């Protein structure tokens, strides 16, 4: 599970650091207008990342711009996932 988490977090930071006109970044971060579908909402790709890190998406995007802050976040997320802990125990410096 940690390998999946690490790869997913690395893809997230790679997309965050792309230029704003890239299609992948536009698709990832733009919300669609329209009527929501019936039933329970589907789990989205970004939901895992915000849940693992315990932060809002805009905070994670800012944090992804700095290498040291992002490395601390990833190592903290992977350490707490081993012990089923929460990210609140980690001190992340931006």
Plain-language structure description:
The protein has 94 residues and is mainly alpha-helical. 59% of the residues lie in helices and 0% in strands. The protein is built from 5 helices and no strands.
Write a compact overview of the structure shown.
Helix content is 59%, strand content 0%. It has five helices and no strands.
Q: How are the SSEs placed, and which strands pair?
A:
Layout: H1 2-16, H2 23-29, H3 45-53, H4 57-64, H5 67-82
Helix pairs in contact: 1-5
SS class: mainly alpha
Uncertain regions: pLDDT < 50 for 5+ in a row?
none
What's the gyration radius in Å? 14 Å
Domain module count: 1
The number of E-state strands comes to 0
Shape: globular
Residue share in helices?
55-70%
Provide the β-strand percentage band: under 5%
Largest sheet: none
> How many H/I helical runs?
5
What's the helix-strand series?
Answer: HHHHH
Q: Summarize model confidence as the mean pLDDT.
A: 82
Task: State the separation between the terminal residues, measured CA to CA.
Answer: 27 Å
Descriptive labels:
94 residues; mainly alpha; 5 helices; 59% helix
